[in-house]
Automatic annotation (TrEMBL):
It comes from Paenibacillus allorhizoplanae. InterPro entries: HAMP_dom, HATPase_C_sf, HATPase_dom, His_kinase_dom, HisK_dim/P_dom, HisK_dim/P_sf, Sig_transdc_His_kin-like_C, TCS_sensor_his_kinase. SUPFAM superfamilies: ATPase domain of HSP90 chaperone/DNA topoisomerase II/histidine kinase, HAMP domain-like, Homodimeric domain of signal transducing histidine kinase. The keyword Kinase applies. This is histidine kinase. Residues 266-492 form the Histidine kinase domain. The chain crosses the membrane at residues 12-34, 175-196. The lineage of its organism: Bacteria, Bacillati, Bacillota, Bacilli, Bacillales. Keywords: ATP-binding, Cell membrane, Coiled coil, Kinase, Membrane, Nucleotide-binding, Phosphoprotein, Transferase, Transmembrane, Transmembrane helix, Two-component regulatory system. Residues 105-132 form a coiled coil.
Length: 496
């Protein structure tokens, strides 16, 4: 059963119960009000007539009751019929309108017994109402008991009024309420069906959008809703926000997947090159070994030179592969979320140690040490080995891409940050390359084939900077050089 149908049934059921209760209360209230008015009129007519009759009651010397007489006023102008029954004489006196119809109001022994019991119980009111049919018409009769001075029941005064029109009115009212309730429920159910459809239309859009997203790749689709910010409006906004987050996540996953494929491809390429070199040199050594083995001839100087070069190449490519594997291991640890161990480190001795060892690196550019006074009393919360690796990565890159000119290191201080600036006068970069220089295996096209490297150094450097809550600024111009400014949070406990 759909939600729309359930809402409609709930609305209709609640309305049906409400209409039923309202109809029952209204019907019984109107019915009671109409009949109460009739009862009062009939009873009042009987009581007024009995007052005169009671005054005319007298006892004979023998204790016999004289004949009771009904008042002779004109009853043609009223709709009330009067009849007086003398119990002792068993005689009837009728009003003129009742005589006109030549009809007697029904009275039996049960009526006499009921009134007699009321007399015996000394009740304040000796009388009761009764509905009956006379000539196929409904009448309401009030039976009023008449007593003598000794409280003996001597007569019964009956006041009757036809109630056929009231009964028909009550029946018509009952049918009118039923028909009106049915029509109201039908109209309300139809209107509720329409309103439920309109109210649930955004939910249908949600389902359609979800189905389209499930069956396709259109993650940019959103649910259109221009209604009020009610529960459905908030649900629509929530789902739209969820779809936006799913789209962002999907894009990030897609980019990560492409980056992973590129990473595997680049890693395979970088590993294949040294392996090819090593395999070629091994084949060469094996060939030379076969030529000289089993003979008494010694290797010629050229063969010895070739063997030395081959072994040198093998050693160099093995070192290159070792560095590549170490870099890949470092990035794998970064991806795995490995937390590096950190301590409070005095930064100045660390930088001086890097500066001293940097001059031993292979380079053709001039190594210049600028002003490092800003490092005085600087304490950094970090890992000593990784911070040294960070600085060496930028220095080695500067040497690598500066065949001529100079590479300079200097320090600056800004608030609670310490900065290390490494600048060179090398080949520089295009501005299009800057957003990608920290990507894994990314190397500018200008440098490919000119300089050696794996393209992982800056990726590792960026990871180390992020782990130390730092940042890096890059300034470069093609053929003029590059500058990297590394910022690390620091404190200066002995600063004045």
């Amino acid at each position: 059963m759909s939600l729309r149908l359930r809402l409609t049934l709930w609305y209709s059921g609640i309305l049906a119960i409400t209409m039923l209760l309202f109809g029952i209360v209204l019907y019984f209230f109107l019915n009671y009000f109409l009949y109460d008015q009739i009862r009062q009129d009939v009873k009042r007519e009987a009581v007024n007539s009995s007052t005169r009759i009671q005054k005319s009651i007298a006892l004979s010397q023998k204790g016999l009751v004289v004949d009771l007489e009904l008042e002779s006023r004109d009853f043609y102008s009223t709709n009330t019929f009067l009849q007086l029954y003398n119990i002792a004489l068993k005689s009837f006196n009728r009003s003129q309108n009742l005589q006109y119809y030549d009809q007697t109001l029904p009275i039996g022994q049960s009526t006499i017994d009921k009134l007699q019991r009321q007399v015996d119980k000394l009740e304040d009111e000796i009388g009761y109402f009764e509905k009956t049919k006379i000539l196929n018409q409904d009448f309401l009769i009030y039976h009023l008991g008449l007593t003598d001075n000794k409280a003996h029941l001597i007569g019964i005064l009956q006041s009757a009024v036809p109630i056929g029109s009231y009964e028909r009115t009550a029946v018509m009212l009952r049918y009118t309420l039923i028909i009106w309730a049915i029509l109201t429920i039908i109209v309300a159910a139809s209107l509720g069906w329409f309103l439920a459809r309109k109210a649930l239309k955004p939910i249908e859009r949600v389902i359609d959008a979800a189905n389209q997203i499930e069956s396709g790749d259109d993650l940019e689709k959103r649910i259109h809703y221009d209604g009020p910010l009610d529960e459905i409006g908030r649900l629509t906004n929530t789902i739209n926000g969820m779809l936006a987050r799913i789209q962002i996540t999907y894009v990030e996953l897609d980019e990560a997947y492409r980056a992973q494929r590129r990473f595997v491809s680049d890693a395979s390429h970088e590993l294949r090159t040294p392996l090819t070199t090593i395999r070629g040199n091994v084949d060469l050594l094996e060939k030379m070994w076969k030529q000289t083995s089993g003979t008494k001839e010694l290797a010629t100087p050229d063969q010895v030179q070739m063997s030395l070069e081959a072994m040198h190449d093998i050693a160099g490519e093995a070192q290159r592969m070792s560095r590549l594997v170490n870099d890949l291991l470092a990035l794998a640890r970064a991806d795995a979320g490995v937390l590096m161990e950190k301590h409070s480190i005095e930064f100045k001795p660390l930088v001086h140690e890097v500066v001293r060892r940097a001059q031993l690196l292979e380079h053709t550019a001039e190594w210049q040490v600028g002003n490092l006074d800003a490092l005085e009393d600087a304490m950094v919360q970090g890992n000593r080995d990784y911070l040294q690796q960070l600085l060496f990565i930028f220095i080695e890159n500067a040497f690598k891409y500066t065949p001529m000119g100079s590479v300079t290191i200097e320090a600056i201080r800004r608030n609670s940050f310490i900065g290390v600036r490494i600048s060179d006068t090398g080949i520089g970069m295009d501005k299009e390359d800057i957003p990608h220089i920290f990507d894994r295996f990314y190397r500018a096209d200008l440098s490919r084939g000119v300089t050696t490297g794996t393209g992982l150094g800056l990726s590792i450097a960026k990871w180390i900077i992020d782990e130390h809550d730092g940042s890096v600024e890059v300034t470069t111009r093609k053929d003029e050089g590059s500058t990297f400014l590394i910022w690390l949070p620091a404190n200066f406990p002995h600063a004045i």
